[in-house]
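Lecture 7 notes: from sequence to structure.

We start with a single chain of 252 residues. Read the sequence below before looking at the structure.
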Amino acid sequence: MTDPITPADPHHSWWKLRWTRVFTALCVIVPFPVLLAWYLQPWYSARQIGSHMLALHVEPARLHDTDRSPVDPERLRAFEYSFQSPWGKVDTRKDLKHATIFLWNDGPILTAFEPVSKSDSAQTIDPKRVSVHDLGLIFVNHGYNSLAAELNATPEQIHWWDRSGSARLGYLLAMKELNLQRGSVTYKIENEELRGFQFSDHAIAPFQVTLELFDVNGRRYELTITSPPDSRKVTQADINALVASFRPIPHS
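Now the structure, written as tokens:
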């Protein structure tokens, strides 16, 4: 004799369906904040970097003062380039391993660094995995395109819906912050021979200007002009004249 079929308990079936729905909802809801935090992390990090310095919000400006001071006819040579002095004859010259220092008794101190070969390291390093060592290499060895991308990056370009873009901008802003340690004001430089940037303003203490110049072959040249407190102040016309006279020395 067969057992009679017992109808399913409707109360038990209702609880089973309810807990199935609850479990499904939890599987959907619980991971959501984690995924959201993961997605927004580059945007948040980039925004944090952008809040550190007001200068990060400013792009390089064009120089309005284009006057040039007269220069001494004698060309000063350092490593593989030469230029002319708007401060007369140089009084003291010191040749070091990686830099040459020029001094004028009543003028500034000019440090001319050894040029660096073309290297766009920032395009070959993953910004999401960049290390402190990598940042140092890029800072020393970047090319014009990398430096221009860094200096033209601003926090306003960051968007929460663009994760990869936020990661890239966070990296560029970190590099820009390093560059702006040399001067919170930046100006564009461009002529037939060179392009690059001027860091700081000659009229802003501590009266030190850094020039980052790149020739048509991508070589990077760095010059620093420092005005001691008791010296004749450097003018923008002096800087313009020096840049206009700058010439890379062709390889023989």
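Residues 122 and 129 are 12 Å apart (CA to CA). Keep this in mind for problem set 3.
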